[in-house]
């Protein structure tokens, strides 16, 4: 056990801060590799103080830095990426960090002969799904530089698997939410917008009929899935992590109204809305990772609202 060290890119971010404590519980040491642009320095400092976590304040775009920092690590978790919203505004940066960063991490992992690499892919690789639930073998149709880079990352892992026998699992995260999340994520901003209005006694305003849906998966369950992927017997495949339930924006508004405890009805803003729906087929996660979600959307959102109200 003593020699097991996880090299964790983007480990200081929202999801990483939920994964690292679970890794420590399992006896791993963790080397966080993060440019700290969005990282939580205070939380990382607390973890570093345990003696089992170190921080390398660097950027995945620098291949030499990645390669030397990974030396001596037995496992890799690669989460460092530019967000989906930002990738449309600045495709150059998105391709640079996501594509070049992916390649630097995978090439180094292959060189160092790590036991397993876990990669944060995304449900966005499917594009607008033709059917629900979305299965890993469905046609992929990524639409933005972010989504395209996530899919390309999966393909690159296949290359290093064939060439160097790299063992990997790509986790296709659905709509992750939970405590500690930055308010800028698209669907988190929907939650924040609704909650802020409700706290002021105002009804949430929904565009269209609120039919567009997401598969909201709690960050605690995502973290559990990440650790399971690090240790799963099967590898070299993509795995969905979601709840399998599509929660519409209208349903979300009702859950949040109940959680805040106000007596209002949502207002609908009649306009044309691109209705996209999301729900994961999680059969493979059950079979390959022995994983399933433990936190329902209602419980998770209610808990999140309580924490938001208390802060």
Automatic annotation (TrEMBL):
Residues 8-242 form the NAD-dependent epimerase/dehydratase domain. This is UDP-glucose 4-epimerase. It comes from Streptoalloteichus hindustanus. Belongs to the NAD(P)-dependent epimerase/dehydratase family. SUPFAM superfamilies: NAD(P)-binding Rossmann-fold domains. It comes from the Bacteria.
């Amino acid at each position: 056990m003593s020699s097991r060290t996880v090299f964790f890119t983007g480990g200081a971010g929202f999801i990483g801060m939920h994964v690292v404590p679970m890794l420590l519980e399992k006896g791993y040491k963790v080397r966080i590799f993060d440019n700290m642009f969005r990282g939580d320095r205070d939380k990382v400092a607390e973890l570093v103080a345990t003696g089992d976590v170190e921080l390398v304040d660097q950027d995945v775009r620098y291949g030499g830095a990645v390669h030397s920092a990974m030396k001596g690590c037995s496992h890799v978790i690669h989460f460092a990426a530019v967000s989906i919203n930002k990738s449309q505004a600045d495709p150059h940066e998105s391709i640079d960090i996501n594509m070049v960063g992916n390649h630097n991490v995978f090439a180094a992992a292959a060189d160092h002969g790590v036991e397993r690499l876990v990669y944060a892919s995304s449900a966005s690789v499917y594009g607008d799904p033709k059917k629900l639930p979305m299965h890993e073998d469905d046609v992929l149709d990524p639409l933005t530089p972010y989504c395209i880079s996530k899919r390309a990352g999966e393909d690159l892992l296949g290359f290093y698997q064939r060439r160097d026998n790299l063992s990997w699992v790509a986790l296709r995260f659905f709509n992750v939410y939970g405590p500690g999340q930055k308010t800028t994520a698209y669907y988190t901003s929907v939650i924040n917008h609704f909650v802020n209005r409700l706290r002021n006694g105002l009804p949430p305003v929904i565009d269209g009929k609120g039919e567009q849906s997401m598969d909201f998966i709690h960050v605690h369950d995502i973290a559990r899935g990440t650790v399971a992927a690090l240790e799963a017997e099967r590898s070299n495949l993509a795995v969905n992590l979601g709840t399998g339930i599509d929660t519409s924006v209208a349903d979300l508004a009702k859950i949040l109204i109940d959680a805040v405890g106000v007596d209002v009805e949502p207002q609908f803003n009649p306009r044309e809305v691109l209705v996209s729906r999301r729900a994961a087929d999680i059969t493979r996660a059950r079979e390959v990772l022995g994983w399933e979600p433990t936190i329902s959307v209602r419980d998770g959102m209610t808990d999140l609202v309580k924490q938001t109200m208390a802060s």
